[in-house]
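Proteins fold reproducibly. Next comes a concrete instance:

***
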Amino acid sequence: MNIYEKLDLKHVINASGKMTILGVSKVSKEVIDAQNFGDTHFFEIEDLVKKTGNYLAGLLGAEDAIIVNSASAGISMAIAAIIGRGSQYHVYHPFDNRFSKNEIIIPKGQNVDYGAPEEVMINLGGGRVVEAGYANMCSPKHIEMMITDNTAAIFYVKSHHAVQKSMLSIEEAVKIAHKYNLPLILDAAAEENLKVYIDMGVDIIIFSGAKAIEGPASGLVYGKAKYIEWVRMQSAGIGRAMKIGKENILAFTVAVEKYLNNGPETGYHMKQRLRPFIEKLKTIPNIAVEEVKDQAGREIYRADIEINKNYKKTAPEIIQELKSQDPAIYTREYRANEGIIEFDIRAVNDKEMDQIVDRLKEIIK
């Protein structure tokens, strides 16, 4: 009896992307081997945290880094660090009223729910969210007009979840932050280039360890040494509830090494794999199919199907039918209200693509 049978779980075909609700990513044998080594040996954990962070910072060209248990934990710990500014008293009393310099400015169109709201993680770190601009635009001037004596940091979200149009760039956000001697915190959880934001001068960069990097449940916070040291201090405060195990620290370190050596799947290779899948999808009636690039500009290509407006089933209904059987087929649902279903093939093999086509043929007549 395998785990699926023992626990009465569905198999899953993940055409949704690297999503937390599905366990994010598959990890390689090298990463599992490192995880196993961590599981079967002891370490001075403080030393392990410090030295793996220093090692990864060296690989990335950052001043310092720390591995945490998730990008969400990284957000909360970074916010707490900026508010506390190296105060040991703050570590033990993070919500004391004397730490009133706690306003975190975020473009309104970036205060998104990625599975949990950005503002919840900011609040958890003791920050008070101040939204700048509007749902459809945010300029450097919109950010600047919200800065007060109580502003602790500017927060920027680089994500497909966030509003893309009429939004100030990361470089512009850095310029405004540094003009007022504020740090810029960047949530780049699902992004793919680990080094580019260092070159832009971003002070604190937060990545998910389990998404593009294909590591275990983990996150990476890296950037300027002063700020990372403040983040590290939070391990004795709110970070205690977010601690990461030794096995995942070592596994993530190997995942980063592997990622830097091999990189993500190239856009060209993804398009080559997509081509036969799209041709098979085109044989299904009542839909239109096209290849689409990631809306946030990443080199990720997907197959989008648009349901004929006169067809008796809607995109949300078809999505639910895809998920209802075993294996459950999960898709990207963000544009379902427009009648569009997106298929992300990064974690899908040829056999699974054929299963998707066969299931769609059963559902769409």
